Amino acid sequence: MKVRKPLLLAAALVLVCAGAAVAQTTQVPALPKITVGLDPAKKPQDVAQSLQILIFMTVLSLAPGFLIMMTGFTRIVIVLGFLRNALGTQQMPPNQVLLSFSLFLTILIMAPIFIKINDEALQPYMNGKLTQAQAFEKASRPIRDFMLRQTREKDLALFVKVAKLKRPRNANDLPLYVVIPSFAISELKTAFEMGVALFIPFLVVDMVIATILMSMGMMMLPPVLISLPFKILLFVMVDGWHLVVRSLVTSFK
Question: Is 152 buried (19+), middle (13-18) or exposed (0-12) by CB count in 10 A?
């Protein structure tokens, strides 16, 4: 009996360890299996579902274009590009930094609109309270209102004339294929106006440095080489990034 007790304890210990190992393996979730197949459609509903999937994949591929043309991303990235050229720092900040910062700043500005779309269109559609057409209509209203607030009437009138539409009674009568290009050229003009305003102080610094070098007879020394540290110093002293970002955020209505 004295010999059997250690054997029984060892066997029990082995069983406990084995049970714990099995329990741990069963708690690990299984990886999903993804399959893609092409089967002949047997019902008209199968064809409609396939077309919906195709349209959805097309929309996903065009998502970057929607982000650029229907949000404030265009204005932000152009202004930041003008700022870098005005400073004359070549590739500082790098393109990846400017694009990433523009993207997150766009998300910040568009967050109230995205939340409204989620509450009024996406969640009711996911819960089966709205059809696809109703969800699209409700989702387009906030983004349409945002674009129209930034768009000039002159640009809207241009594309209404190009599309050969009758004069709309209100903003709801304007189709998205008219609102989007009108918003795009309005954003381009606004961005270029802000870019010109950014260029002026740095241009003054360049002119002052060039005048000083010419008066000293140092005509072979590039003025840009001397003015670059002064422009960076001026930008840092006035807290330029704070001023530029504040101007960008407050420029959206």
Answer: middle
Burial class (CB in 10 A: 0-12, 13-18, 19+), 179: buried
Alpha helices in 62-152 (DSSP H): 63-69, 73-87, 95-117, 123-126, 132-150
Q: Is the pLDDT of residue 37 over 60?
A: no
Average pLDDT, the chain: 74
Structure-block tokens of residue 50: 């396939």
Stretch 230-234: mean pLDDT: 81
Closest Cα to residue 231, out of 91, 98, 85, 80? 85
Distance CA 138, CA 121 (A): 6
Spell out the residues 6+ positions from residue 122 whose beta carbon is closer than 8 angstroms to its own: 135, 139
Please name which of 139, 135, 151, 148 lies closest in space to residue 114, comparing C-alpha atoms: 139
Structure tokens at 224: 């840009």
Give the pair of three-digit tokens for residue 204.
């003054």
pLDDT of residue 13: 43
- pLDDT, residue 104, reads 87
43 pLDDT band, cuts 50/70/90, is low
